[in-house]
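Shipment paperwork, digital attachment
Item: protein structure file
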Amino acid sequence: MTLAEKVVKKMQSLPEDKQAEVLDFVDFLEKKLAAEENRAWS
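Attachment content:
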């Protein structure tokens, strides 16, 4: 089982409101990574 599959499996066991929190956190991490990459190119 891949890491992504493990994350999905665990997330599916959470209530929907907690799943939304996980999604918000992933969005935050994507934005943080993009900002760090932009700074690296500056």
